[in-house]
Amino acid sequence: MTMSDSRRRFGQWGEYVAALHLEEKGFSIIAKNWRCQRGEIDIIARDVDEYVFVEVKARKGRKYVWRYFK
């Protein structure tokens, strides 16, 4: 099953917004859409002494949730 162009663009927009949010919070973006044999990580970021691995799920609607797991 392939994703439609509009869904792909929406997902890319969600990843862009998430990266902006992380940068505003002081994180440095190390990589986007990093791939390996086991899959993909949407964003890899760094905050002073920690690396953060981010999976972005873009949703339509007025509600949104930012979840941070440490």
Q: Kindly report the spatial arrangement of strands forming the biggest sheet.
A: 1-2-3
Portion in strands: 25-35%
Largest sheet: 3 strands, antiparallel
Residues in helix, %: 25-40%
| Rg calc | 13 Å
Structural class: alpha+beta
Q: Could you state the order of secondary-structure elements as H and E? A: HEEE
Key words describing this protein structure:
1 helix, single chain, globular, 3-stranded antiparallel beta sheet, alpha+beta
Could you walk me through the main structural features you see in this protein, from its secondary elements to its overall organization?
By secondary structure, this protein is of the alpha+beta class. It has a domain at 27-70. It is built from one helix and three strands. The protein has a three-stranded antiparallel β-sheet, covered by helices on one side. It is globular. The model has no long low-confidence stretch (mean pLDDT 85).
In short, what is this structure?
29% of the residues lie in helices and 33% in strands. It has 70 residues and is α+β, with helices and mostly antiparallel strands. The chain has a three-stranded antiparallel sheet, covered by helices on one side.
Topology of helices and strands:
Layout: H1 5-24, E1 28-36, E2 39-47, E3 50-54
Antiparallel strand pairs: 1-2, 2-3
